[in-house]
């Protein structure tokens, strides 16, 4: 099981480093977000340190829970550093563990067990979903389409 998680992290890092960091389109940005959410989930599971992602009006950022119980912003690895949304991309809704969160509290906390979530995003091309399952995998689809 641990080997599979490590292989998953390596694959996520490879995908992130192979070009999805560039801001060429909303699809590229969505793919990048898909990979970094999966990476954060796997990193939290392997290291045993909770990581949260907060979705803000103009950006999203990752933090880790320190030993004192406080959230510390992450700047490294660079994949988890704060990132601004590209024009036309915004969060419409977030459901975590089957509970829709208010716009003022859009965050996912990843821990030793994966957190199921559905993140609904609006782009200039339409609505997209990023769906995280209990195995820590994140997929992308359009509403009404099974990933």
Automatic annotation (TrEMBL):
Domain spans labelled General secretion pathway GspH: 31-136
Keyword 4Fe-4S set for record: no
Full protein name: Type II secretion system protein H
Domain of life: Bacteria
Membrane topology note: Single-pass membrane protein
Family: Belongs to the GSP H family.
Main location: membrane
Organism: Viridibacterium curvum
Keywords assigned by UniProt, alphabetized: Cell inner membrane, Cell membrane, Membrane, Methylation, Transmembrane, Transmembrane helix
Gene3D superfamilies linked to this entry: minor pseudopilin epsh domain
InterPro entries registered for this protein in UniProt: Pilin-like, T2SS_GspH
Subcellular location: Cell inner membrane
